Recover the amino acids of this structure.
């Protein structure tokens, strides 16, 4: 993608992290291959559902009409590279809540702050523009980086779903986290 085209699509940018809506433009990059990358999927449920280019394309096309999901493509701006997605899903307007989910497929960008920065931008969007009162997420207990990220973002552990996900050949526990709008506001204003 041309740099000027990417800049025209940006919804948010903070430092080197840029967010735009996920579209079929990302299908021409490495995004479709992320779903069959063992390391990328070691801690999530994508691995049990390998995806073809057609399936990924159908998913992306469905986002336009699906009001229960908002998927942001995350870009490393200096390199002009789509490195991951952060999504708001299971959006419930009545109860004003949504689930956050992450998929970062370009492993050379891991551990450099892109997940945290993109999450903050998506969280700000949810709380300020979508009338969301509560965000939540769940991750495998063994996924130390994701648990650390949830806490860094201000999420509070709310529970543990015992043996909730079959992963790596065994049933594993999922840690549940939640964050309320006023908690996010308090953290960003201090």
């Amino acid at each position: 993608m041309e740099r000027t085209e990417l800049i025209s699509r940006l919804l948010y940018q903070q430092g080197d992290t840029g967010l735009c809506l996920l579209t079929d433009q990302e299908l021409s990059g490495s995004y479709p291959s992320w779903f069959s990358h063992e390391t990328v999927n070691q801690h999530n449920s994508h691995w049990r559902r390998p995806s073809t280019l057609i399936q990924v394309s159908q998913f992306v096309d469905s986002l336009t009409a699906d009001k229960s999901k908002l998927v942001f493509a995350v870009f490393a701006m200096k390199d002009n590279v789509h490195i991951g997605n952060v999504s708001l899903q299971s959006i419930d307007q009545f109860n004003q809540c949504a689930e956050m989910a992450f998929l970062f497929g370009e492993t050379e960008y891991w551990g450099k702050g892109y997940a945290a920065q993109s999450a903050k931008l998506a969280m700000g969007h949810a709380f300020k523009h979508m009338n969301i009162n509560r965000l939540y997420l769940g991750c495998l207990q063994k996924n130390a980086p994701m648990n650390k990220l949830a806490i860094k973002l201000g999420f509070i552990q709310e529970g543990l779903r015992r043996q909730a996900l079959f992963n790596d050949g065994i049933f594993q526990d999922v840690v549940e986290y939640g964050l309320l709008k006023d908690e996010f506001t308090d953290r960003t204003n201090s």
